[in-house]
Amino acid sequence: xxILKHAxxxxxxxxxxxxxxxxxxxxxxTIISIWVLxxxxxxxxxxxxxxxxxxxxxxxxxxxxxLTGPLVxxxxxxxxxxxxxxxxxxxxxxxxxxxILMRKNKYIRKKVKQKQEKQDKKEKQxxxxxxx
Length: 132
Description:
- By secondary structure, the protein is mainly α.
- The chain has one domain.
- Helices cover 86% and strands 0% of the residues.
- The chain is built from three helices and no strands.
- Helix 1 packs across helix 3 (55-131).
- The longest helix is centred in the last third of the chain and has 77 residues, at 55-131.
């Protein structure tokens, strides 16, 4: 069952990728144009499968649409899940980097404060020595 589910998701992902490309638009346009030409031109009468209203072509396109619609939706859902996982991993990575930077920032502020305190203490001692 898991293998079948994975196969359907893979097929759906491929169909969704193909259907969302210019290649699919151009290829379908070409196929339909060839179909119409073969079934319309007078010197191709031996090959006429479907005459003018093109009801067989309509049937094929309807079946194709009814099959690709759900596959595109399944593929887009799986793509959405992949994007969600990617976003979550980016978030955790950035949070870890932010934590590291905050720790480094605390360390640097602590060192700067210590240095400033030393400097202030030294200036105070010099001031006290000068006033004596």
